Amino acid sequence: MSIADERFIQNCKDILENGFSDVCYDVRPAWADTGEKAHTIKKFCIVNRYDLTKEFPVITLRKTFFKSAVDELLWIWQKKSNNTHDLKSKIWDAWADENGSIGKAYGYQLGIKHKYKEGEFDQVDRVLYDLKHNPLSRRIMTNIYNHADLHEMNLYPCAYSMTFNVTGNRLNGILNQRSQDMLVANNWNVCQYAVLLHMFAKVSGLVAGELVHVIADAHIYDRHIPIVEELIKREPLPAPTFEIDDIDDFYKFTVDNVRLKDYNYHEFNIKIPVAE
Ligand SMILES: Nc1nc(=O)c2c([nH]1)NC[C@@H]1CN(c3ccc(C(=O)N[C@@H](CCC(=O)O)C(=O)O)cc3)CN21
Ligand SMILES: O=c1ccn([C@H]2C[C@H](O)[C@@H](COP(=O)(O)O)O2)c(=O)[nH]1
């Protein structure tokens, strides 16, 4: 049975049984169709550890759209784009302007160059440089929560910081996330950053180790509650096998260079509403 399923079931049970409801408060998010406020039940600070040497952390309770998730990951980390025209799915359309821009968020921040004694690097290239040249460094991290630019972002970054740590031949990482929509994007984000660790490890001569996911506000939206209640009653299936091609340059990866072999999942035919 998939370890990601176990974590997801545990997290959601904890939120539903012990979480805090914001239903009596005036909140920001709303449902686009009716304009009603989108309330949540939430838990403060959930930490999940995924050992990538054991299993790829994808859920089987419903299909995680792995290729779309990897496409969005590469849109942010490799293309460093903030324009939805460079993205295959429509998941960001609601937050884009008439030209497709989501503002100075995500990829835009990763692409900004900064000065170092070795020259100018953007955040991604600095990480890749340090993984090769300074693997013992405790300073290998990215942070896209740039306060100076928040007013020009259509949605503030949720998964905002990655800390990379090399231990022996293992590349471990901590993903810091301030806000998590458990049903829509929890496993989506976990799969993305597991793939990122695998890709960075591959191009740095390392193996992917542990992914630690720290979530400050882990919530389930009101309209998602009945869906989550049904999902977590399901019997998890075995996790698939993760495959990655031998590629030595991060910028040469495409979505087809990573695959899930024998990915079995439960049928799920509901279109999930996404709070805006
Ligand atoms: N409320 C909210 N939740 C989010 O998860 C979220 C936002 N807003 N705003 C920005 C991005 C967009 N994200 C999204 C939005 C939609 C899907 C989604 O609809 N996923 C579908 C499959 C997508 C596909 O067809 O490939 C799913 O069923 O999981 C995923 C991530 C994550 N983010
Ligand atoms: O990668 C992502 C991007 C967004 N989310 C979710 C988390 C929240 O439900 C909303 C953002 O609303 P805020 O009020 O700004 O927190 O988007 C996610 O889970 N993963």
UniProtKB/TrEMBL annotation:
PROSITE patterns: THYMIDYLATE_SYNTHASE (PS00091). Its EC number is 2.1.1.45. Pathway: Pyrimidine metabolism; dTTP biosynthesis. The active site is at 158, 158 (nucleophile). Keywords: Cytoplasm, Methyltransferase, Nucleotide biosynthesis, Transferase. DUMP binds at residues 138-139, 178-181, 189, 219-221. One of its GO terms (cellular component) is cytosol. GO terms for biological process: dTMP biosynthetic process; dTTP biosynthetic process; methylation. GO terms for molecular function: thymidylate synthase activity. Its main location: cytoplasm. (6R)-5,10-methylene-5,6,7,8-tetrahydrofolate binds at residues 181, 275. It catalyses: dUMP + (6R)-5,10-methylene-5,6,7,8-tetrahydrofolate = 7,8-dihydrofolate + dTMP. Homodimer. Catalyzes the reductive methylation of 2'-deoxyuridine-5'-monophosphate (dUMP) to 2'-deoxythymidine-5'-monophosphate (dTMP) while utilizing 5,10-methylenetetrahydrofolate (mTHF) as the methyl donor and reductant in the reaction, yielding dihydrofolate (DHF) as a by-product. This enzymatic reaction provides an intracellular de novo source of dTMP, an essential precursor for DNA biosynthesis. NCBIfam families: thym_sym. This is Thymidylate synthase. It comes from Qingrenia yutianensis. The lineage of its organism: Bacteria, Bacillati, Bacillota, Clostridia, Eubacteriales. The gene is thyA.
